[in-house]
């Protein structure tokens, strides 16, 4: 019998076609991820579950997943999947670490420009017919120091783009060798050194026990006055309350956040502060990236279900 896959999030239809072409039965229910009860009710019928970030794969879902062999996350972060519960059940969890890395790095660079030049506020004011030319004094990126926390797939691309913008780049990443850093044209530093020296700081690490709340109130206080902070990685890496205080005092000149400790973020300590640019977790939201991750996840899951590899 052909394996059956459920897609419970808004994946590109390209994924549906790949499953079909490989002889896998596919059920495309892009809004099901929001309905935990329904998902728990039907998950037992499927060998594979393909998701993005809206579906939360909890122990209850897994308890009901009597035939499930693989969960495929079209994207990078697997923090919406209870991996311990999956592994206890022998369910493989796979992600697509490369499909959206350029798009996410580009969003971080866009956010850096937006916060350097207050583009969202200036745009809103211009739409309102105010023409406040002298209100929006920005800062140049050329010659400034960018601190990149996490220089892996996405952080590495951010380093490269920032070098192209003639920024000096400091990178903190325990997995980065000095030799590789030299090749990338960046300076490998310790986190507290980066914190003290950077004009802009951007985060590109997953949220783990080690990285959760890594940008504490103390670290924010140790930053250069006038620093600007960008987070397009994961919510919960930065102490949002402490950052809001530092923005109000003027110690931090601006912040650009795509991710929040609680998502969907309906309220947040950073909301409605001046020079805080916020987007609703759009890091991977381009047609190119969504096509890439959908194709990759479908291909990987089909290989696993059909050949065990
Ligand atoms: C990811 O982990 O791939 C990104 O954060 C994008 C997303 O979750 O949609």
Automatic annotation (TrEMBL):
Keywords: Amino-acid biosynthesis, NAD, Oxidoreductase, Serine biosynthesis. Pathway: Amino-acid biosynthesis; L-serine biosynthesis; L-serine from 3-phospho-D-glycerate: step 1/3. Residues 109-283 form the D-isomer specific 2-hydroxyacid dehydrogenase NAD-binding domain. The keyword Cell inner membrane does not apply. GO terms for molecular function: phosphoglycerate dehydrogenase activity. It catalyses: (2R)-3-phosphoglycerate + NAD(+) = 3-phosphooxypyruvate + NADH + H(+). The keyword Lyase does not apply. Residues 5-309 form the D-isomer specific 2-hydroxyacid dehydrogenase catalytic domain. Its EC number is 1.1.1.95. Belongs to the D-isomer specific 2-hydroxyacid dehydrogenase family. This is D-3-phosphoglycerate dehydrogenase. The lineage of its organism: Bacteria, Pseudomonadati, Pseudomonadota, Alphaproteobacteria, Rhodobacterales.
